Q: What sequence folds into this?
């Protein structure tokens, strides 16, 4: 964890709890920090699995922090306060804020201003902050990743109450490409949370064989350093190919620097500015183009027309073919739309002529009658 973060922060192993993946870590924290009917605030768009991980067995409610494309979906003070007030109107007790940094599905790192804003907010409200940092090792370009622990230490908050209210979730699934190994972790400076999470981890243990294997792998510092460096280069190369291919098809993306996916803007391809039109477009891409992408509505995005497109789970040849298919599809939509527009213009032109002739005939008849 420290190496991924450039050794800017250190982690005390006594504050670390291993879990069967990040899914188990997030659910465990919900059981530790909240009661049934309490609320956790999440900025939109967010990972769809949180609806399952945070709610199903805990009874915790999610209240969205509404973010928009106008500022690149960054968190604002007004959005935080609006979400908090919305929870209060629903008679929900807010127990904390959960963020993913880097973001899934945006593929962006949070700015230090956003992190400072979050620390100030949870301090003022006396609630918890969970920073899900499972994509921290996938940051392939600037700006660099900043962990919430780094912000706390830079602000010298070690001896304050907020120090024990900030918790980090980590996993090896994304950074080392080991999702099937189910190795996650909770890091907390609150000894009560650590104790409770340790007891709960009995229901989702990491096997001894897995621990032994990964211990041997991660102790090889030369390997881990080379792997992380090479992985960053490969991710950046693949992301560049996706962005370039989409641009050739007339599609843009939110500027990103991390993760295994891009947040793609297809609003101009919608038949109308509605989520129904988004689902219609998604179905055409899945069933006709044969590409599996995620609609923004599944990530609770407040604006129709955004899609998450993964680029790291396929070969370069497959990605090239996918971009060719998408380009052909967009061209066919453009032709269809142009044909439809031409027909509309023709009907409008003919209707104008018909109205003119009718009006002229009516005027002529009146003239004849008056004579």
A:
């Amino acid at each position: 964890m420290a190496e991924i973060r450039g050794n800017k922060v250190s982690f005390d192993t006594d504050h670390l709890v291993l879990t069967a993946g990040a899914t188990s870590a997030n659910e465990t924290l919900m059981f530790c920090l909240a009661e049934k009917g309490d609320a956790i605030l999440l900025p939109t768009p967010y990972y769809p699995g949180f609806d399952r991980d945070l709610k199903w067995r805990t009874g915790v409610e999610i209240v969205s922090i509404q973010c928009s494309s106008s500022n690149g979906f960054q968190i604002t003070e007004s959005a935080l306060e609006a979400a908090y007030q919305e929870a209060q109107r629903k008679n929900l007790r807010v127990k904390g804020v959960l963020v993913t940094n880097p973001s899934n599905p945006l593929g962006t790192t949070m700015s230090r201003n956003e992190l400072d804003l979050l620390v100030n907010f949870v301090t003022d409200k006396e609630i918890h902050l969970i920073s899900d940092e499972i994509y921290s090792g996938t940051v392939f370009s600037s700006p660099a990743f900043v962990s919430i622990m780094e912000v706390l230490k830079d602000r010298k908050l070690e001896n304050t109450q907020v120090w024990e209210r900030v918790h980090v979730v980590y996993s090896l699934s994304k950074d080392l490409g080991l999702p099937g190994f189910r190795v996650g972790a909770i890091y907390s400076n609150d000894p009560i949370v650590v104790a409770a999470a340790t007891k709960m981890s009995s229901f989702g243990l990491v096997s001894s064989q897995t621990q032994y294997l990964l211990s041997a792998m991660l102790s090889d510092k030369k390997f881990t350093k080379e792997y992380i460096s090479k992985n960053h280069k490969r991710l950046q190369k693949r992301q560049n190919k996706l962005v370039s291919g989409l641009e050739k098809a007339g599609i843009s993306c939110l500027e990103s620097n991390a993760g295994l996916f891009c947040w793609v803007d297809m609003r101009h391809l919608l038949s109308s500015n509605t989520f129904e039109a988004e689902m219609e477009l998604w179905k055409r891409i899945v069933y006709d183009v044969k590409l599996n992408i995620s609609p923004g509505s599944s990530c609770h995005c407040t604006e129709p027309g955004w899609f998450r497109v993964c680029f790291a789970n396929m070969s370069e040849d497959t990605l090239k073919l996918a971009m060719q298919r998408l380009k052909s599809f967009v061209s066919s939509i453009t032709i269809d739309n142009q044909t439809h527009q031409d027909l509309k213009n023709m009907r409008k032109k003919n209707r104008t002529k018909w109205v003119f002739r009718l009006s002229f005939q009516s005027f002529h008849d009146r003239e004849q009658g008056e004579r």
